[in-house]
Amino acid sequence: MKNRVIESLESLIKDATEPDNELSWLWSRILGHYYNGDIFYEPSDLGWINDTINFENLPKAYCYDMAKSREWFGRAAFLGCPYSIFLFYQRYYDKNDYDTALKYLRMGAQHNIPYFLGELAEWYAKGDHLKRDLAEADQLWRRAAKFGDCSAQYELGRLHLSNRGPTEMNQKEARAWIFLASENNDPNAIQEYVSIKKGLDLHEIHSVENYAKTFLKKTLIKERSNYDHLFNTDKNKKDSQA
After folding, report:
1. What is the pTM of this model?
2. CA-based, 20 to 30 A from 153: which of 123, 147, 180, 201?
3. What domain count does the chain have?
4. Mean pLDDT over all residues of the chain?
């Protein structure tokens, strides 16, 4: 896909609606931006698109069509585009329409996007806008943690370290999840693990960290979001995850 030239608006729409096109979610998102009028002036969060796709053949004399923009963003969300799902989630959350916001949270979780798994887990853990369910929160944090999400790793460890976890997890594993999160630079986990180590001897610290490195890391699933396989450079990967 690198340095792809968009031949025409018609070809872009065709790619976005092609059932077997694995990038139809991306082309749908681009059409959402196009009809929103923000492809050609390159806002900061679209830099990664403009670095890899040539839009010269798209008509610049487009009209702003918010209905079409919402339609394409909606299609992109349904297909698993993290940006588009977040767009709708945040919009409805800000309007205090929590039922619809929850719909998009669940959509993101169904696509195994770590942010939405963790956010939905927090809703269940706190009982925000739905019935409190620590078992569901535990399951969601576990899924996000195994995708390498450091915030979920911290929350999972903290849940079980406080003995509130609905499933069995020994204290060493709970501490190990927090250690992994601290290794991934989660600020809360770093602070928590410093506190944890104060109550352990050197043998126990080594046991926790060895368990994390030799066992927990092997259970992690290499994250492959819709963005990960598109670009090779670290810059583009960073931009796509922002």
Report:
1. 0.82
2. 201
3. 2
4. 84
